[in-house]
Amino acid sequence: MTSLDLVMILVYTFPMFLFAIAPALKLGDYLEEKYGISEKTKRIIMVVGTAVVSLSLAVFLQFGHIY
Fold first, then answer.
1. Per-residue model confidence as pLDDT tens digits over 19-60
2. What is the C-alpha separation between 25 and 32, in angstroms, rounded?
3. Dmax over Cα atoms in the chain, in whole Å?
4. What is the number of domains present in the chain?
């Protein structure tokens, strides 16, 4: 992986936030309803979930054509 790949992944990450927010919100709501987690924990899960899904989508966009 070159530095250009890393820059492109970071560039792709920001638009992917649009696609990652909804699943993270659903996950936070599900965990709150199912397990009764606190609001603070729910917000942490939503932020981390959004970041992980965005980064995953960006990596797939960058390297998906290889496979």
1. 999 999 999 999 999 999 999 999 999 999 999 999 999 999
2. 11
3. 44
4. 1
